Fold this sequence. Notes:
Number of domains: 1
Number of strands: 8
CATH superfamily: Alpha/Beta hydrolase fold, catalytic domain
CATH topology: Rossmann fold
Protein name: Dienelactone hydrolase family protein
Domain Dienelactone hydrolase: 28-243
Strand content: 15-25%
Keywords: Hydrolase
Radius of gyration: 17 Å
InterPro entries: AB_hydrolase_fold, Dienelactn_hydro, Dienelactone_hydrolase-like
Number of helices: 7
Order of helices and strands: EEEHEHHHEHEEHEH
Pfam family, one: DLH
Distance between the termini: 26 Å
Structural class: alpha/beta
Shape: globular
Helix content: 25-40%
Amino acid sequence: xxxxxxxxxxxxxxxxxxxxxxxxxxxxxxxxxxxxxxxxxxxxxxxxxxxxxxxxxxxxxxxxxxxxxxxxxxxxxxxxxxxxxxxxxxxxxxxxxxxxxxxxxxxxxxxxxxxxxxxxxxxxxxxxxxxxxxxxxxxxxxxxxxxxxxxxxxxxxxxxxxxxxxxxxxxxxxxxxxxxxxxxxxxxxxxxxxxxxxxxxxxxxxxxxxxxxxxxxxxxxxxxxxxxxxxxxxxxxxxxxxxxxxxxxxxx
Length: 252
């Protein structure tokens, strides 16, 4: 696995990014953009990006809190032991689904300029707040995203004008939506509303509820569940394998 740090110029400034590529083989490979959770950029999400790269993808990890400025890195177990909203709230307030979707245009342009990326269609992977951002990005750039995987994404169908479910009519990507049990940020009635929007728009998707708590995929979260995380990885790699590696669309 190869690793590089770079900056991508967006309409609002320079977004620090990390890029991970497979260590074995010459490529080119399909690309996946990782949309972080509210804990920001830290070793755990870098570790997950490396693992995805080792599975045969060029992985772009942008720091979507770039509008805030320098921070952290945070240790979730310490943050959640106190008033996490006071710590993370000011950073989260600097971005939203629409801003992340617009930022994605610059991220896609950067991937387009690389010789080790195959095709125009990419994947999106989002965790927690990043789940909604990934869906919004795929709706904003429908011809560029082949697949979206959202893990314990919150607030996917609300009355806010930035709600991810409003992007359903624009989506061309296939979605995998993995929810947590007893998740206040994505209760059953919200899941029904979100899935109804996908159904009405004819979106290809699979939705599953895991017997785990919100944040179970993240190895540095207090609620990390190894068995359910591995299940999530299998579903994610199946989705990206079919849509990015196994589809003729990925090379077009």
